[in-house]
Target: Leucine-rich repeat-containing N-terminal plant-type domain-containing protein
Amino acid sequence: MGLLLLFTFSFTLLAVTSTVNSCPPADRAALLAFKSSLQEPYLGIFNSWTGSDCCNNWYGISCDPTTGRVADINLRGESEDPIFVKAGRSGFMTGSISPEICKLDRLTTLIVADWKGLSGEIPSCVSSLPNLRILDLIGNKISGEIPADIGNLQRLTVLNVADNLISGEIPASIVNLKSLMHLDLRNNRISGEIPSDFGKLGMLSRALLSRNQLTGTIPTSISNLNRLADLDLSVNRISGSIPAQLGTMRVLSALNLGSNLISGTIPSSLLSNKGIDILNLSRNSIEGYIPDVFWSKSYFTALDLSYNNLRGSVPKSLSSAAYIGHLDLGYNHLCGAIPAGSPFDHLEASSFTNNDCLCGMPLQSC
Ligand SMILES: *[C@@H]1O[C@H](CO)[C@@H](O)[C@H](O)[C@H]1NC(C)=O
Model:
């Protein structure tokens, strides 16, 4: 009797486990439609996508253990996975992302990254996937625009479409992504302005927008982002002056505004801020004096102010900085004696090259 009970119990458990793990036919059909618009000729990652149970041993697919629904698509073309090691190469894939994936309405992760040849557009229906947390399509040839309704994705923490051919503007709705922590749009063809209410993205810690065609000014609201550690707007066409409020941000540690059309002067708050340790304002039209506000808590692994219209002298207070790793003041209109002191001991002449009349170590004596 006891044995029978135990047997019945295990049998029930087995039945429950297997229903939980088996893939709903509709999810399986959506995955097969997704696969049918892709060609991956070298590794054969899709060879594992056979049989009825898409939750079991389908390469890159995992399911939610409680609902049994497909939760993650994780396909990376750069990987240490044995399938890549064995083939001795990184991944290459052509084709496009089928809108059929939007039928996977419990999807939390969509990673189709670094396949180099993937083209087509981001299906606009991804903005209707309520559980989506990670959208990572870096390193393909995806064109078209970021879906206008992307801001619907209230759980999205990572939006990475870097290194593609995305055009159009940053959608206004992006500021509604209240969970967004990591935004990477680098190296695309995105134009237009950064939304003025960008500072609504309260969870944002990295905003990487470099190498696009962005215009307009740096929104002052960015300074409200209390978790923002890394802001990279370099190599765009951003104009106007640098909001002084950026120097009051709590955790900002890397600020790269290089290669833009920025004018005005350097806010002293940016140089006296003790958290910013990489500051790149190179290749702009910044003018005026370098504020003489360095102090014992100034710590810069890189401070690049080269290729601007700075004049006056190298600030004396720089010699009281705790650390200056890489300094570049070249190609400005600075003049006068370079201060002496510990941060200057290891600097080379190239840090000061092509100014109007600088002198003293490491240049010729005054
Ligand atoms: C600063 O930005 C400029 C322009 O984008 C770039 O050429 C330079 O290498 C950067 N400097 C450092 C120290 O990374």
The chain has a mean pLDDT of 93. The domain at 22-100 is CATH 3.80.10.10 (Leucine-rich repeat, LRR (right-handed beta-alpha superhelix)). The pocket of 2-acetamido-2-deoxy-beta-D-glucopyranose is lined by residues 234-235, 258-259, 280, 282-283, 302, 304, 326 (CB under 6 Å).
